[in-house]
């Protein structure tokens, strides 16, 4: 039997309760959820997140050990040889643009912030190659400042869960932030990203193997038979 769908139309109170229930269930499903980018400092995470654009965390993690060994400070990035850096990060794609961003990032950090990554959103988004998504990743995971990371997985699941109808990341961030306590924002981001990578795929979500199907208004857009759905589930880690 299919899980019951939330009543239509759904009241605001019911939406908030359902959103928070899904978050609690995802917390039990993914107790170890975390960013799958490897880093040991705010600068390393910032660089890794910039490199992750249009590629996988796994690919970035193959590149960063060499990169981080060569460039340890913002000043190192500012003074980097363009060709050398391009060779190191080439496999991540768009390597010329990414190299330009990393060199400019190092220069900006040295010129404006004493070579340190600032701990505020309003400052980070002024840096070359850094938007709200990247800044929220760094703030949440390197500074402990709650933030919602709206990547493609998060946006897809937020719409499927009926938490938003928006496609603009800033509007999605606002809509979801109004449903979930601020203290949960960073972990919620990890949970949705993990669930999107493993179960709630873009084309064929594994609805019949989904632990939050009971509270999802989009149940049925993918296979609902448990055995068929289970074949679609991907095992992590993805780093």
Characterize this entry briefly.
This protein has 239 residues and is an all-alpha fold.
Topology:
Elements: H1 12-29, H2 42-51, H3 57-70, H4 74-78, H5 82-89, H6 95-113, H7 121-124, H8 132-142, H9 152-160, H10 169-177, H11 185-198, H12 226-230
Characterise the protein shown here:
With 239 residues, this protein is mostly helical. The protein has helices at residues 12-29, 42-51, 57-70, 74-78, 82-89, 95-113, 121-124, 132-142, 152-160, 169-177, 185-198, 226-230. Helix 2 packs antiparallel against helix 8 (132-142), helix 5 crosses helix 6 and helix 9 crosses helix 11 (185-198). The chain has 2 domains: 12-31 and 148-230, Helix-hairpin-Helix base-excision DNA repair enzymes (C-terminal) (Endonuclease Iii, domain 2), CATH 1.10.1670.10; 42-142, Endonuclease III, domain 1 (Orthogonal Bundle), CATH 1.10.340. The radius of gyration is 19 Å and the shape is globular. The model has no long low-confidence stretch (mean pLDDT 95).
As for the CATH topology of the largest domain, it is: Endonuclease Iii, domain 2
**Main β-sheet: number of strands, strand sense, barrel status?**
none
CATH class membership of the largest domain: Mainly Alpha
Strand coverage percent? under 5%
- Which CATH architecture of the largest domain would you pick? Orthogonal Bundle
- How much helix, percentage-wise, in residues? 40-55%
Structural category is mainly alpha
For the secondary structure, the number of strands is 0
Q: Which runs of at least 5 residues are low in confidence (pLDDT < 50)?
A: none
* Cα separation of the termini: 36 Å
- Name given to the CATH homologous superfamily of the largest domain: Helix-hairpin-Helix base-excision DNA repair enzymes (C-terminal)
- Rg, nearest Å: 19 Å
Question: What is the N-to-C order of secondary-structure elements (H for helix, E for strand)?
Answer: HHHHHHHHHHHH
Overall spatial form = globular
How many helices does DSSP assign? Answer: 12
How many domains? The number is: 2
- The residue-averaged pLDDT reads 95
């Amino acid at each position: 039997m299919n899980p019951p769908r939330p009543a239509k139309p759904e009241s605001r109170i019911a939406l908030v309760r359902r959103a928070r229930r899904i978050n609690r269930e995802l917390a039990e499903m993914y107790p170890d959820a975390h960013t799958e980018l490897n880093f040991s400092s705010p600068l390393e995470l910032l660089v890794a997140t910039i490199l992750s654009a249009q590629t996988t965390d796994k690919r970035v993690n193959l590149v960063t050990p060499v990169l981080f060994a060569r460039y340890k400070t913002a000043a190192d990035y500012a003074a980097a040889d363009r060709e050398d850096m391009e060779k190191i990060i080439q496999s991540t794609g768009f390597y010329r643009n990414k190299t330009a961003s990393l060199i400019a990032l190092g220069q900006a950090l040295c010129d404006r912030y004493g070579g340190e990554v600032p701990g505020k959103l309003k400052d980070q988004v002024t840096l070359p190659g850094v938007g709200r998504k990247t800044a929220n990743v760094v703030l949440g995971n390197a500074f402990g400042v709650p933030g919602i990371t709206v990547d493609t997985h998060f946006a897809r699941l937020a719409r499927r869960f009926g938490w938003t109808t928006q496609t603009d990341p800033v509007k999605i961030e606002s809509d979801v932030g109004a449903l979930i306590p601020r203290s949960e924002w960073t972990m919620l981001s990890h949970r949705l990203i993990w669930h999107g990578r493993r179960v709630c795929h873009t084309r064929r979500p594994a609805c019949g193997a989904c632990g939050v199907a009971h509270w999802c208004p989009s149940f049925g857009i993918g296979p609902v038979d448990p055995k068929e759905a289970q074949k679609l589930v991907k095992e992590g880690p993805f780093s």
